[in-house]
Amino acid sequence: MTLPDPPKQETASQTAGPYVHIGLLPRMAGLALHPVELGRSLVGPETKDARITVTGCIHDGAGDRVRDAIIEVWQADGTGSLAGNDGFTGWGRVATDFDTGVFSFETIKPGCVLDAGGKVMAPHLCFWIVARGINMGLSTRMYFPQDSQAHETDPVLSGYVPRERRDTLIARREGDTYHFDIHLQGARETVFFDV
Amino acid sequence: MSNRALSPRNWQVHPPALAPAYKTSRLRAPAQALIAMDPTTSELSGPTFGPAQIAASDSDLLQNHKTTGLPIGERIIVHGRVLDEQARPVPHTLVEIWQANASGRYRHVNDSYFAPLDPNFGGCGRTLTDQDGAFRFHTIKPGAYPWPNGPNSWRPAHIHFSVFGTAFAQRLITQMYFEGDPLLDLCPIYQAIPDPHAKARLVAPLDMETSEPFDSIAYRFDIVLRGACSTPFENRPEGN
């Protein structure tokens, strides 16, 4: 019997660098090259669910705001489906502002997602963060403060994250706006996952 | 969307978050260890893209920002395949690239290097892999450029690659370098990769077979995303 070739090794990651915007959000870098900037909006006009805004900053180890980061978001729709419907793509791409360091995007609140084996996950957004100085994209999650009961049984939040660090993954609510600050280092360092 | 479980990351092939010789990583590297988790349906699914969003011309950087003529520099073809760790092709996935122009300058509002911009070169492109996982870009060879990491730091010529795969947990950004570049030995970003084989795989070899005579030199760059766990065979004692 011929055995298959041994698995190939995955390709090494490298930093996205300071000029990542020309590749992923070229209009932000002053390059009006593509008619459609991918991931610019998660919701379409026909999306029925109520809109929410998610906003925040990324802080480095000195407490300064990271002004050159790109965040990608991946989330379920209001019914907990990851397939996308009604003009809702579930995927978004946003940068922190060059001057203020703030990121902000409009979306809908996701529903509970069913994991394999029927485990119910509390509503969450998956974040993936790249920037100059980040050698490999950082994966984290944002949860919603009003779902505290579901957090107790969420397989990720309650299954892997030490209790004293869980609040780094829970946004702060202000009406329809959710504030989610990310700390790369320090006393409030955000939990990042090896997914 | 794929429901296959992914194989664990091989951290030996990736640079550590903190690579002190790369100064910016010192304040941007998480100090605490990443928390390992089994990917859930959220991370095993991911966005998909189609030809409605990507034009065929988006992969031709010689043409996609043309104003008065062709860009200046060595004309090159960069091609390869996106595969998983079992060497299976990853078809119809989005590959995005960005790079400096031939003089080492990015068309980016924050690039203050005094080398000239090229009016005919944007420095970004994108494409979808075909059913065999293959992609191809036509561009110019980027120049090396100085950066403020140390008193005399130069980045080797490189092209940035962003790849999606079928699962959000496969998401990857990397850089392709060029065979024979003496600056590779001096670059702390490149040298942060611990495994010499993993480093070597980021260096695209010259590919004369794909070069177009009297037109463009070709370089080959294959990208391997972490793959699905292979199925264990009960009747094979050595595993799978």
UniProtKB/TrEMBL annotation, chain A:
GO terms for molecular function: ferric iron binding; protocatechuate 3,4-dioxygenase activity. InterPro entries: Intradiol_dOase_C (IPR000627), Intradiol_dOase_core (IPR015889), Intradiol_RC_Dioxygenase (IPR050770), Protocat_dOase_a (IPR012786). Keywords: Dioxygenase, Oxidoreductase. SUPFAM superfamilies: Aromatic compound dioxygenase (SSF49482). Pfam families: Dioxygenase_C. PANTHER family: DIOXYGENASE, PUTATIVE (AFU_ORTHOLOGUE AFUA_2G02910)-RELATED, PROTOCATECHUATE 3,4-DIOXYGENASE ALPHA CHAIN. Belongs to the intradiol ring-cleavage dioxygenase family. NCBIfam families: protocat_alph. This is Protocatechuate 3,4-dioxygenase, alpha subunit. The lineage of its organism: Bacteria, Pseudomonadati, Pseudomonadota, Alphaproteobacteria, Rhodobacterales. The gene is pcaG.
Automatic annotation (TrEMBL), chain B:
The keyword Ribosomal protein does not apply. Pfam families: Dioxygenase_C, PCDO_beta_N. This is Protocatechuate 3,4-dioxygenase, beta subunit. NCBIfam families: protocat_beta. GO terms for biological process: 3,4-dihydroxybenzoate catabolic process. Residues 8-40 form the Protocatechuate 3,4-dioxygenase beta subunit N-terminal domain. It comes from the Bacteria. Belongs to the intradiol ring-cleavage dioxygenase family. InterPro entries: Intradiol_dOase_C, Intradiol_dOase_core, Intradiol_RC_Dioxygenase, PCDO_beta_N, Protocat_dOase_b. The keyword Oxidoreductase applies. Residues 45-227 form the Intradiol ring-cleavage dioxygenases domain. Its EC number is 1.13.11.3. Signal peptide: none annotated. One of its GO terms (molecular function) is ferric iron binding.
